[in-house]
Structures are given as structure tokens and as C-alpha cells.
């Protein structure tokens, strides 16, 4: 059944879960301040831990912000006057940027007790790889590095197009993924994104050679959510 609870819309997703339930997808219009989304994540996470809601994915664009994970080094942070706030968060990884022209997804999912968290991260990466492919861009994984990358070619070195930063607490995931659509890539010049100094960043628009908006990418992301959620407990 598809319902609407006022916070967003419930997307009917075919699921292959140990505990079949509806997936609620909350889509926010406009640019959302990071602190607002962070508070929403914490509220949804607590409700999912308590069994008060079904699995939920929040999809949005942020106002410009740098978020610093637990492994961020001081030298990787932007200098004062960077034009965007820096928010320290409780996810893994280092520092990254979020803002206009980038689609961000926060899956709040109750994971199996014996779930392979690294395997879950790979599923999230696969979602972005599949979305890129549908838009004519060949994204890949790179050994030893998280996220989705464009291989080195005549146009430049390896470059990151999608990021993953997750946390699992009390068996429920939070934080999530970010895929660059048509964002201003100069924001990344002010940091060492994800702590990797020898790689560049890119976007779907740059790689496809045309404007690729968040509005165009959103339906592709929603269609592939089932790939992320088709989790099975490990024997």
C-alpha cells in the first residue's frame, strides 16, 4: 500500500528483506540546511530503533556545507572564510562538501543482526554506479577507496563522483551517500576531499558533457533503492 504521512511520500519498492515492510521516501524540495537534516536523521533513527516507523530514505539537496567525519585531519579542513560552515559529524571517513547540484540520500534502515556492513557500503556504491550508467557515465570502484570514481583517462586522473559515509548504531543505519550532478566543483578546491590529496572530483554534468540536474537524477536513484535494500542475513 502507498500512503502519505505529511513528511514525504511512501515509495512502493519491491523488497527482498527478512522483514518485509513499506519503504518511506522523504523528498525535500529546495535547499535544506545541514543541521535541519541532521536533526531529522536523529529523530528518524530513534523512531526506527524503537520500531515506530518503517525503513526510510531521505533525499535532498543541502545548502553549501562541509561535513567532517571522525578521521578528518586539521590540514584537510578549509581555511576560514571558505564560504560554507564546517560541521563535525559522527560518521566514518573524512571531510567532504554538500550543496546545490548534488543529490544526497540518507537511508535509515534496520539492518540484519549479522549484516556485512562493508557489503552494505558496496550496495550503496552500486546504486550510484547504476545511476551513472543510466546517464551514460561509467563509474567504478577503486581498490582501497570508498565511493564511486571515474577512471583515469585522457581528460584527467581518477576523479570521484559519488561519496559514501555511513554509521550503524543500535542496528540502524544513518548518514548515507552523495552523488554530484551539476554542482560547482570549486567548493572541493578548499579542502582535501575524503582525505585524498592525489585525486580530483567530478560530476555527472562534467562527464556527460551536458547539464544533468538533480531533478533528472532523482527518479533514477529512487528506482535503484531496491538494490540497496535487497539485504539478506548472513548464514
From TrEMBL:
Keyword Transferase: yes
GO molecular function: lipoyl(octanoyl) transferase activity
Alphabetically ordered keywords of this record: Acyltransferase, Cytoplasm, Transferase
Record's signal peptide: none
Binding-site list for substrate: 91-98, 163-165, 176-178
GO terms, biological process: protein lipoylation
EC numbers, comma separated: 2.3.1.181
Cellular component per GO, a single term: cytoplasm
Reactions listed under catalytic activity: octanoyl-[ACP] + L-lysyl-[protein] = N(6)-octanoyl-L-lysyl-[protein] + holo-[ACP] + H(+)
Compartmental location: Cytoplasm
Pathway: Protein modification; protein lipoylation via endogenous pathway; protein N(6)-(lipoyl)lysine from octanoyl-[acyl-carrier-protein]: step 1/2
EC supergroup of this enzyme: transferase
Note: In the reaction, the free carboxyl group of octanoic acid is attached via an amide linkage to the epsilon-amino group of a specific lysine residue of lipoyl domains of lipoate-dependent enzymes.
Annotated function: Catalyzes the transfer of endogenously produced octanoic acid from octanoyl-acyl-carrier-protein onto the lipoyl domains of lipoate-dependent enzymes. Lipoyl-ACP can also act as a substrate although octanoyl-ACP is likely to be the physiological substrate.
Protein name as catalogued: Octanoyltransferase
Organism: Haloactinopolyspora alba
